[in-house]
Specification:
- This protein is flat.
- Helix content is about 85%, strand content about 0%.
- The N and C termini lie far apart (about 60 Å).
- The chain is mainly alpha-helical.
- The protein has two domains: about 1-95, no CATH class; about 100-144.
- Keywords: Coiled coil, Signal.
Length: about 140
């Protein structure tokens, strides 16, 4: 397969990845807005210290860092949405460069790739289930 096909495929996969990362956040926000205890859990999830900070900052510094994160959250979210819209526009322009045959080939390759990932996921789940079953058998036999 030509390198250009792999490039376009990787661009599409990247976009799907970005969208999949953003979509769960939207769903989580709408799901937690109804429940106060869930909102508190969401706030804890949103408040994350940068790498390696948790071991060295005081509680007062931690609160200050969280306040700073809160001040920038909406602006950063808006920029993320703008970036996603720009990526979508760019990808549409890129896709318009391709012929219909090339677009179809990319769709087929992407579908094959997804099918293979799904098969591998199923195999991993099956292996994990067998591992758990074997562990349960061992612990059951050891307990007898």
């Amino acid at each position: 397969m030509p390198r250009s096909h792999w490039f376009f495929l990787s661009v599409q996969v990247f976009c799907l990845l970005v969208i999949s990362l953003v979509s769960p956040v939207d769903a989580q926000e709408s799901a937690t807005s109804d429940k106060p205890e869930a909102a508190a859990e969401q706030e804890d999830a949103v408040h994350r210290l940068p790498s390696h900070y948790s071991e060295v900052v005081t509680e007062a510094q931690r609160k200050t860092i969280y306040e700073i994160q809160d001040r920038y959250r909406d602006e950063l979210r808006e920029m993320e949405l703008q970036m996603l819209a720009l990526i979508k526009k760019r990808n549409a322009e890129i896709e318009n460069v391709l012929s219909a045959e090339q677009k179809e080939l990319i769709r087929k390759v992407a579908a094959e790739s997804k099918a293979q990932r799904d098969r591998l996921k199923g195999l991993r789940e099956q292996i994990e289930a067998e591992r758990r079953k074997a562990e349960a058998s061992k612990s059951g036999a050891a307990g007898n």
